[in-house]
Amino acid sequence: MIRHLSAADYRTMPWANGRGVTVEMLRVDQDGGLKWRLSRASVVEDGDFSIFPGIERNLTVILGPGFDLVGPGIRLAARPLLPVTFAGDAAIRAEGVTGPSDDFNVMTARSLARPEVRVMDAGDLPAGGTLAVFALAKAKVAGVEMVQYDLILTDQAAQVAGLVIAVRFRG
Fold it and tell me: Based on the domain organization, do 17 and 57 belong to the same domain?
């Protein structure tokens, strides 16, 4: 199975805290709640992140200088193309925003295994679980041509050419 999604398949919605906008690329629900979700958003100023109880988050800055994620006992450097993880129910703020930064977000139910998230520009991805590949520029995944911000979902092995974020979900 290979599923190719593009901007026409995504939906835009306000952040849960009302301070910005998210482009939801894909959401999978299970048992009446979120199983996992892939989205894009822009951080343009210092401020609070939305709270998502029972959710684990992974954020990768894909454009812009990045910022710090700060909360009680937490200080993470969200820098370009370096995935960071944090609990969705932690009171986290973006601080040190010096310019707009776009980010790619992976949210998963805490009951699931944490997804593997990596930035790559070429290579082979073995089969296993559900693989989501997000194109950061023109790319080719499993023989499918992609433009920037397209998404491929597959349960098969895939060869990658071009800068992408690969996310593997298990369970």
Answer: yes
> Is 31 strand, coil or helix?
coil
Give the DSSP H or E segment for 22: strand 21-30
Q: Rounded to whole angstroms, how far apart are CA atoms 107 and 27?
A: 9
Residue 171 has pLDDT above 80, yes or no: no
Say if residue 57 is in the same domain as residue 131: no
> Residue 165: which domain range?
116-169
**6 to 13, 23, 108, 127, 153: CA distances (angstroms):** 17, 12, 21, 23, 11
| Tally of CB atoms within 10 A around 16 | 12
Q: What type of residue sits at position 59?
A: L
- pLDDT-based confidence at 108, cuts 50/70/90? very high
Amino acid, res. 9: D
pLDDT, position 30: 92
pLDDT of 17 above 90: no
CB 170 within 8 A of CB 113: yes
Residue range 97-114: mean pLDDT, rounded: 96
How far apart (Å, rounded) are the C-alpha atoms in residues 113 and 68? 26
